[in-house]
Amino acid sequence: MITSRRFFWLIAGPLVALTAVGCSKKSPSIVDPHGPEAHRIASIWWLMFGLAAGVYVIVAGFILFAVVRGRRTDEGKPSRISDNTFIWWGGIIVPVAILTVLAVETVSAVSDVRKPEASPVHIEVTGKRWWWDVRYPDDNIATANEIHIPTGRPIEVGLDSDNVIHSFWVPQLAGKLDMIPGQHNVLRFKAETPGTYRGQCAEYCGLEHARMVFLVIADPPDVYDRWVARNQRTPAPPEDEAAARGEVVFTREACAGCHTIRGIQATGIYGPDLTNFGSRTSIGAVTVPNTTGNLAGWIANSQSIKPGSLMPPIALSASDLNDLVAYLESLK
Ligand code: CUA
Description:
This protein has 332 residues and is of the alpha+beta class. It folds into 3 domains: 28-71 and 80-115, Orthogonal Bundle (Helix Hairpins); 121-232, Sandwich (Immunoglobulin-like); 241-329, Cupredoxins -  blue copper proteins (Immunoglobulin-like), CATH 2.60.40. It is 42% helix and 17% strand. Helix 2 packs antiparallel against helix 3 (80-113), helix 5 packs across helix 8 (318-329) and helix 7 (292-301) packs across helix 8 (318-329). It starts with a helix and ends with a helix. Bound molecules: dinuclear copper ion.
């Protein structure tokens, strides 16, 4: 026997859950689009939502009608013809029509968002364990985890992996595309509004999959051009004394074996390029904010912050650690 309260939640539950998910501001949402491609994808989401909601309301209406009416008292024979009509419409014609509309709309959207545009900004992103290697081949810039782009211009991101499969997803700007070893995929999108958009690895890739996050920072074109110019320069030798000592620590210790910093004897390729490290907002693929304390803790033992990270603990004296942190923070 269905009580009235249970019946209420049966009907209203999905709507309440959907509202709670849609209104959450904590995580980026595909229904908060900030570019033409994302708008196109969001429009399909709303179409699916509209059709599903329509079906839901009609089915719930029938259930409600059946419950309110109760069991039929007249023992008349049910008509086979009216039963068959119901099955034809509700079970075959309407579902086929809905699925056809969705199929056509989805295929046309996929072809729209993949269309190449003239003079895009080329960016190459490689999925690592567990961070993002970011390169601008036309501008000779290398960075990690924070992808700067200009608003209004088409962006073309080449996606690769040299290990397992990852998936590049920044829901407010573009669809999701896998990074597959041995296969070069290309994702195209545009950002309309300046802002910082959070991206997430969307394919389970091991222990730190959940902390494989990145940021897309969309700046007005003039701000972006200044970022490019700043990042093309080789960093000047540090003026600060502690930072200068830190540069010596960096090349003397294991750091330079895994990381590259342009202009010094550090050309490692296993870890992120640190040439502009001081200007980044986070450490460990957006695991913690880039602060002096977090940086010192990360160098001493990244395993305590991101267990499974491929960076080994680095044993340094307190003064060497301070100097090294000062040096890395000076790289802007
Ligand atoms: Cu990379 Cu999940």
